[in-house]
Design a protein that fits this description.
By secondary structure, the chain is of the alpha/beta class. The chain contains 15 helices and 16 strands. α3 packs parallel to α5 and α11 runs antiparallel to α15. It is globular and about 55 Å long. The two termini are 33 Å apart.
Length: 390
């Protein structure tokens, strides 16, 4: 074994309804389906840990979908997963994603003894008109009440998700959402420009002219505004789309950006391990010559996964050592801290980085390669060039 994965992602593919912009792996929940999903997640996880794929995890992340729609089942699922993956002690980080309509005070309180330490609340906006465009099942008032319920526990870190560049959203609305997010007392805020995914109901609305297409220039202005307003409140950018009070950064997500191996549980869940450890996640195929890393994902069809939760990953991708290093460099540049010269050299991208410096997208400061303000706004160009190595 090269390195025990210390990070586990659990995908709960259930929602109370499907939002118009969403193309994530999720289905509308029911009492019976929720019971079935929880049982299948527990069975799948219970086969991974005994196989030696994880000794003592330090972070556990429940995403979706909407884990909070599980209600009273969620604390029980968290407890089961903590036991299976050896997540224990005050140093562990356990995050659950939640939507305001299902994150009631009783659930927030029940999550604390189950070992949850963070709640990531999918607010998206504190403007009811924007929420209606997105098809969200909550309003601004319920978002504030849900945030208040999390904070009232006195034990849970609160993270707020916000979305900018939504059709019909103006700067006044955006600034108001930022102010109200800050006022919740959240120590972490994630900010995402809306992407209209092909095949979604929102895509059909844009194509038919019912909704205007998102304005990328306005979204860029909104990202700059978020950095300024959140920073003034002590919530500083540490990654392209993530801001935190220092010391409250997401350790789980930081593992993704720093090349740490992580396990996946649930439909459409993605994981990454060393190539030598492929058998521990159910991949029996022999690694090709030169493979150093394996990326894998389980079936993205919820029913197909439920029918065979112990099936091997549906998708696998082998990376060579050079590709893995380039990936680490690309993802590391998403962080405000940037990457060090040793990683840049190992990835063979020093020339690319120098070219990006010439384009004003990167800088070399304090013996680190870092993305500039302009580079944040053109992140896809920066990361694409680094991954391509040219």
């Amino acid at each position: 074994m090269t390195e025990f994965p210390e990070h586990v992602y659990v995908h709960v593919p259930l929602c109370v309804s499907k939002c118009g912009y969403c193309d994530f792996c999720s289905v509308v929940t029911s009492e019976r389906l929720a019971d079935t999903v929880v049982a299948a997640l527990t069975v799948q996880a219970s086969t991974l840990a005994p196989a030696g794929s994880c000794a003592h995890a330090s972070t556990l992340y429940f995403g979706g979908g909407t884990p909070s729609v599980l209600g009273a089942r969620l604390p029980r699922l968290v407890t089961a997963m903590r036991t299976v993956f050896g997540v224990a002690g005050e140093g562990a980080e356990v995050t659950v994603e939640a939507n305001p309509d299902s994150m009631v005070p009783a659930l927030a309180a029940a999550l604390v003894p189950a070992g949850v330490t963070r709640v990531s609340l999918g607010v998206q906006s504190f403007d009811d008109s924007v929420l209606r465009v997105l098809g969200r099942p909550h309003d601004a008032g319920s978002a504030e009440r849900a945030a208040g319920g999390v904070m009232a526990t006195g034990a849970l870190d609160l993270s707020i998700d916000l979305m900018c560049g939504v059709p019909g959203q103006d700067m006044r609305s955006w600034e108001e959402s930022l102010v109200r997010a800050i006022d919740t007392g959240a120590a972490h805020v994630s900010v995402y420009p809306l992407t209209v995914e092909p095949g979604t109901p929102m895509d059909a609305q844009v194509l038919s002219g019912v909704l205007p297409a998102p304005d990328p220039d306005l979204a860029a202005e909104m990202m700059l505004t978020a950095e300024r307003m959140l920073g003034a409140a002590g919530i500083v950018r540490y990654e392209v789309a993530n801001f935190a009070v220092p010391g409250h950064e997401s350790r789980h997500n930081s593992a993704y950006w720093t090349g740490r191996p992580y396990l996946a549980v649930g439909p459409a869940a993605h994981g990454m391990v060393a190539a030598d450890d492929a058998r521990l996640v159910g991949v029996s195929a022999t690694a090709p010559a030169g493979a150093a890393r394996l990326r894998y994902a389980y079936a993205s069809d919820v029913q197909a996964w439920l029918d065979a939760p112990l099936a091997p990953p549906a998708e696998i991708e082998w990376l060579t050592a050079d590709e893995a290093a380039r990936e680490d460099a690309m993802l590391g540049l998403r962080l405000s801290a940037g990457i060090d010269p040793a990683l840049a050299s190992r990835a063979g991208v020093v020339g690319v980085l120098e070219s990006l410096v010439g384009d004003g997208l990167l800088e070399r400061a304090d013996d680190r390669w870092r993305v500039t303000q302009r580079g944040w706004l053109l992140g896809n160009q920066v990361f694409g060039r680094v991954w391509a190595g040219e």
